[in-house]
Design a protein that fits this description.
This protein is an alpha+beta fold and 221 residues long. It has five helices and seven strands, in the order H-H-E-E-E-E-E-H-E-E-H-H.
């Protein structure tokens, strides 16, 4: 009679051995997939960033080649008040600057809003605005994604005569008659999303102010 015990497939030790083995195999597969896919993910992220910049600059074309369209965009670096170097983008034709494209970000209702603001070479006239990341309320705050609202920014002025930031998202509709001397600085509010509108005002005014790109834009004005 044999004294060897039969192999117990349901034993705790065997179950643990199999579980640990499977975990190790899965970990290796996941890590390998991440390494293989990382270059493609980085490429996709870069193309997405370039697409957003082209869109805010009004240069994106349907089915257009992003790399070719982006050839007129050149990165530059601006040191802001806290000593941080921030990357901006310039649309250039030869040595001539056609647009200044600035990254902007700040608190929204639920999370940080991130986007780009495009300006004319005078450093004051808005040519476009585009948010690419936010978590604003669907149907309310996410109106900042709507082309109709973004188009309201085009042609607006950032600064008053004293060079202080004046651009703002008002509550309701900006009064459009001769009695409103501030119309050039005002953007219609977002229905049901006053807090999001306030957030947009604060973040834009921050980035064009003395703590942000204000001193840099002053050189253009």
């Amino acid at each position: 009679m044999s004294d060897n015990k039969s192999f117990d497939r349901d034993s705790i030790s065997n179950t643990l051995t199999i579980a640990i083995g499977l975990s190790l195999i899965c970990s290796v597969l996941v890590a390998s997939a991440a390494i293989v896919l990382k270059p493609k993910q980085l490429k996709n992220q870069e193309e997405y960033r370039q697409r957003i910049i082209l869109e805010v600059a009004g240069l994106m074309e349907p089915e257009g080649d992003i790399a070719a369209l982006f050839a007129t965009i050149q990165p530059d670096a601006v040191e802001i008040a806290n000593g941080e170097s921030v990357e901006i983008y310039l649309e250039k034709s030869g040595d001539s600057i056609k647009q200044i494209i600035l990254p902007i970000s700040g608190p929204g209702l639920w999370s940080t809003m991130r986007g780009y603001l495009a300006l004319a070479p005078d450093g004051n006239t808005v040519k476009g605005i585009r948010f690419y990341e936010h978590a604003e309320t669907p149907g309310l705050g996410d109106q900042i994604d709507k082309a109709d609202w973004r188009n309201l920014w085009v042609g607006k002025q950032l600064y008053g005569d004293d060079s202080t930031p004046r651009i703002e998202v008002v509550r309701g509709f900006a009064l459009r008659d001769s009695t409103n001397a501030n119309l050039q600085y005002q953007i219609d509010g977002l229905s049901g999303a006053t807090l999001t509108g306030n957030g947009v005002t604060k973040l834009v005014q921050h980035w064009i102010g003395p703590e942000g790109f204000g001193p840099y834009l002053e050189t253009y004005r």
